Amino acid sequence: MSLFGGSKKQSMLGVDIGIGGIKLVELTKEKGHLRLLTYGYSQGFNQTSFSPFDEPKQTAELLQTVVKKAQVSSRTAIAALPLSSIFSTIVSVPYQKNQAAIKESVQSQVRKLTPLPLEEMITYSTFIDPIEKKDQKTLIKQTDEIEKKNIRVLVTGSAKTLVQKYIDIFKQAKLQLKALDTESFALIRSLIGKDKSSMMLVDMGSSRSNMTVVEKGIPFYTRSVDMGGKKITEKFMTQMGLSEIEAEQMKRDLVQTNHEIESGKTPLPKLFEEFLEPLLNEMRYSLKQYESMEVRENHGVEKIILTGGSAHLPGIRHYFANALNMNVYVGDPWARILYPEDLRPVLEEIGPSLSVAIGLAMRESDL
């Protein structure tokens, strides 16, 4: 099993495990394109405070159920570690001809920043700046230029104990865990592709919202906050005396019918604004933090892409676009995937919720 990186091998099953439930997508490669084989998801875990990683057996049983109902054929899978449990930083170190010396310099800096001792973590390094080019005609010139500057390295890591919990879950679910990725890289694959411009991805999940500022396909800045779609559900339940099922259904009905709010012709419901304003403030903070980073190259974020289960809330795109004076879009993770046309309505509705799972399934495709 490779962690965070390693050699790419054929694997098309992506599994996204979170407090909001389990989502999975299986893809196949067909004549240079990716085609959807199947997908599945659970409705979440019963306990409000339940963490799927604290009860591996229960989570494995739910995963087995989703795999069976979706009629998944693959026995190997790629999963994503939650952004809230990931350590991520970009360090800048002097260029040295000896790559081992560069890695030693990186480790020395990272050791001062990690929340746990390095011996208790699994880390993976991604070189942002190329060390050399394959073109021999430019190799000497490239090396001369590199020697004059520092090398930027993205270091991602997680606690070994959390990694072991993933291994236990998949083993009990009778699946081979081929690799562990990050949610950020999964979303970059499914929503951005080869676009090298700077943008912010905002993944609004059930319990948490994650913000990732991406530059040239690299997650330069990440932030996870305790704000999710369940807060709207809870407000519906409290203010209208609804059950959780009724409140969730009301949210879905609003998404499907309230086109005037989305176009900006009707003001955003007060209930939604109460949820979105704190998130808007977190987005502003994240943008300022990125702009203050010395290691970045681009001038600033050019656009924002929304995803996650709350991305289709009526008026949300228009609200953020006006408040931030920036282009805001709802991401389409199916844009580069073939699927039956009659599935389009349901796939467009659930697409934002499956963005991470889709990106995981795309990881080994080289497309």
3D structure, described in words:
Among the domains are: 87-159, Dna Ligase, domain 1 (2-Layer Sandwich); 194-331, Nucleotidyltransferase, domain 5, CATH 3.30.420.40. It is built from twelve helices and 15 strands. Helix 5 (183-192) packs across helix 12. It is an alpha/beta fold. 37% of the residues are buried. The strands form three sheets. Strands 1-9-5-2-3-4-15 form a seven-stranded mixed β-sheet. The chain has a five-stranded mixed β-sheet with strand order 12-11-10-13-14, sandwiched between helices. Strands 6-8-7 form a three-stranded antiparallel β-sheet.
Under the CATH scheme, which architecture of the domain at 194-331 would be assigned?
2-Layer Sandwich
The parts where pLDDT drops under 50 for at least 5 residues are 134-148
What is the CA-based Rg, rounded? 21 Å
Identify the CATH class of the domain at 194-331: Alpha Beta
Order of helices and strands: EEEEHEEHEHEHEHEEEHHHHEHEEHH
The CATH H-level superfamily of the domain at 194-331 is: ATPase, nucleotide binding domain
Distance between the termini: 22 Å
Number of distinct helices: 12
* CATH fold field value of the domain at 194-331: Nucleotidyltransferase, domain 5
How many strand units? 15
What fraction, in percent, of the residue positions are helical?
25-40%
Overall geometry? globular
Arithmetic mean of pLDDT: 85
Major sheet: arrangement of strands: 1-9-5-2-3-4-15
The amount of beta strand, in percent, is 25-35%
Structural class: alpha/beta
Largest sheet: 7 strands, mixed
Protein name: SHS2 domain-containing protein
InterPro entries: ATPase_NBD, FtsA/MreB, PilM
